[in-house]
Amino acid sequence: PREPIVLGIESSCDETGIGIVAGRRLLTNTVSTSMDEHARFGGVIPEIASRAHLEAMIPALDAALDEAGVGMDEVDAIAVTSGPGLSGALMVGVSAAKALAVATGKPLYAVNHLVAHVGVGLLEDSASAAGDTESEASLLSGLGALLVSGGHTEILKVSDISGDVTLLGSTLDDAAGEAYDKVARVLGLSYPGGPAIDRAAASGDPRAFTFPRGLTAAKYMGTVQDPGSHRYDFSFSGLKTAVARVVEGLEAHDEPVPVADIAASFQEAVADVVTSKAMLACTENGIDTLLLGGGVAANSRLRQLVSKRCSEHGIRLVVPKLSLCTDNGAMVAALGARLVQSGVAPSGLDFTADPSLPV
Ligand code: KG4
Ligand code: ZN
Question: Is 320 near ligand 1, meaning CB less than 6 Å away?
Answer without folding.
Answer: no
